[in-house]
Amino acid sequence: MSSRTLPLLFINLGGEMLYILAQRLRAQNTPADKAKKVMNDIITTMFNKKFLEELFKPQELYSKKALRTVFDRLAHASIMRLNQASMDKLYDLMTMAFKYQVLLCPRPKDILLVSFNHMDAIKDFVKDTPNILSQVDETYQQLVEMYTPLSSGEFQLIRQTLLIFFQDMHIRVSIFLKDKVQNSNGRFVLPTCGPVPHGTQVPGLIRLFSCTGEEVTRLQFNNGGNYTAALREGSFETFGDRVTKLGTNMYSVSRPVETHMSGTSKNSAQHTKINTAPNPLAKEELNLLAKLMGGLEIQKLGNADSGFRVNLFATDEEEEEALITRPDELSYGVINIQATKDQQANAELAKIMGEFTESGDQSPSASSKGDDLLAMMDGL
Amino acid sequence: MYHKEKSIQIKNSASALYNNLSVLRIAPRRLTYFTVVHANVVNMVSASWDGLNYSHRQLQSKEPNVATSTSLIMQVAFCVLPSRDLLVVTSQKGIQIYESDGSIMVYWHALDTSDAPTAQAVFARGISAVWDNYICVGVSSGAILVFDVPSKGSNITLSEVLEEHKEPITDIASECSGSQECIADLVSADDGGNLCVWKSGKEFQLLNKIPGFDMSCSSVKLWKGIVVAGYGTGQIHLFEAVTGILHAEVNAHARWIYSLDIAPFSGLLLSAAEDSLVRVWHLTVTPETNSVEVAHLHNECVTDTQICGAKFCDGDGYAFAVTGYDLSEIIRYTQL
């Protein structure tokens, strides 16, 4: 569908990831300098120039599996380590949060305001680090250039593409349940009250006109809800009041992040055929983004000894429990490259990954690199 | 005025696409077919009128080239012609036409993706049968493909390409009153809210162009010479097709309208939107005084659901069916 969806999906999911990690780092009493390093490293990787260039190219949306791989890499772009269960939970929270924001956006165009809310928060995280800040500022420019000229219909197509990506996801999120924005069956509450979107009138009026254009009758009808007039429009520039709260940080020290796994199995019983249909070229989904992301990660391996673990659960026992009890249909099936398995494979992989680092300035011809990588994966 | 009946369960949930429900009533067999799109799959249900038998079928958008990514379906609609009923499926890759029970594909038309600028999405959307033998399908470039359909067999041919719209087609509808007096028999709508009114024939004739107001018109209907158009702003406008005169403006919904339908024998209008509401209206068209009246009759709220399809199940509007995003059922309502 829309070929402009991926940047918005990535930036918003990335933003949610940062909110969650920031909260967990605080909850675990991580020393301030370490926490800051984690956030800075992840944001630097997220806004890597080459990576963003690839991201912003017009392309179809990645599969859930492929996108999850990208975020796995991103989460590990720092000295922080996450276990499988914590990574699963992190991804659940990120995706459900963004699904909520997309659904609740009054107008499709407001997804851009949600993206700006995430960007504004990211900018705030790195405001003391000029070199990362400039990367973030450049991304603002790219977003404004790419998205502000789009029509309402094009934004709706982007929204519809995102909704297909999020189809049938009903994971219950504790913070949403508490705030009563999600029902116990995992579906979000869609209120029939509140302000109408900018550009829409409060429903309830029928106007009839004569052939000469004069209004001849006005009729009112009961709209079945409790709507109020639209609020002012948010700013679509690189700064300004976005007006909407969607996309702002809903976590704080006192509001922990939890998901409920039980009770979701019966709802997700009818999983879609798209994810389970055998695709002979599934490995091709180890796409350029994931490769780029992985390439950036390899650089950090030298710091492994200073790594520390972040837990998305309250205790280690809970984390273990979550891994065991996670329903099958909710597993993401992440594609892992175990680069350490084979000496020769490792060297090849490292060489290819090396091509994508900042120091290298050649733009790789995707096809031959892809073949090498695929051949290697077959051998693993 | 209406009460809820037993829902029909479908195999997958409905995707958020405009006009995502199509209904075909087969009186001689006392059956009704329903189709709902889920990503790249069409869910078809055949429901017997006594409510005892349901059978399901799924159609996938087939690609000639397996290696490429899946082709998402934009819309599915039944096309009723005097000689035969067909099922048309429009996707990112092209147009497929099946026999109405989905059993055999009789025609496949691939979309030409070569001359579209890379950032523009390519897809087909907007389906309508018109006159005795035409099926019209819209394309993201704004073009409308006119297919000539023989009374039987698979010798369907592309008869004409209408190039009037500049923005992606959203919906197409034909005159449904059955009246022979209406000059215009087709209306097409696009993402800019522009409407084109046509007369069908060996060469289609453009009768009128009604400009939009930079807001997508997601659903359109044509009845007794009146165009009924639903917009992303939640408004419904009624225009006289041939002259473009605006007869009525309704602040109908609080969110984007996704579906409109008309019951031609009674003049009932159905509108459904992302705001969870389905509304029933009554249209009165008096040609002698050239006046149009709209009255609001009824609301149904499908709690916590963004509705994506709503259709009457019969020509009088005695019953209607509704689909919603992420919902794996077709909800039905009948008059009390």
TrEMBL record, chain B:
InterPro entries recorded: WD40/YVTN_repeat-like_dom_sf (IPR015943), WD40_repeat_dom_sf (IPR036322), WD40_rpt (IPR001680), WDR54_beta_prop (IPR049546), WDR55/POC1 (IPR050505)
Repeat keyword on record: yes
GO CC terms in record: centriole; ciliary basal body
Name of this chain's protein: WD repeat-containing protein 54 beta-propeller domain-containing protein
Natural source organism: Monopterus albus
Keywords, comma-separated and alphabetical: Repeat, WD repeat
GO biological process, one term: cilium assembly
WD repeat-containing protein 54 beta-propeller domain location: 1-334
Highest taxon above the source species: Eukaryota
Segments annotated as WD repeats: 250-291
